[in-house]
Write a structure and sequence with these properties.
mainly alpha, 52 residues
C-alpha cells in the first residue's frame, strides 16, 4: 500500500466524484479505523475548499 499521503489523496479523489452529501460517509468508511488517515483526508478536503 502507498504512503499516507498517497492513500489520503486517492480517498479524496474518489470522494470528489460523489455527491457532496455522500462524501463524509465515504471518507469515514474508506479510512476505517485509521484516525490519522481520516485526519489527513479532512485536512486535504479543507485545503481544497479554501482554494475554490
Amino acid at each position: 500500500m502507498g504512503t499516507l499521503q498517497d492513500r489520503a489523496e486517492q480517498i479524496l479523489l474518489s470522494a470528489s466524484e460523489l455527491e457532496e452529501t455522500e462524501r463524509d460517509a465515504y471518507v469515514n468508511e474508506a479510512c476505517g479505523s485509521d484516525p490519522e488517515l481520516a485526519r489527513h483526508v479532512r485536512e486535504l478536503q479543507d485545503a481544497a475548499r479554501t482554494r475554490s
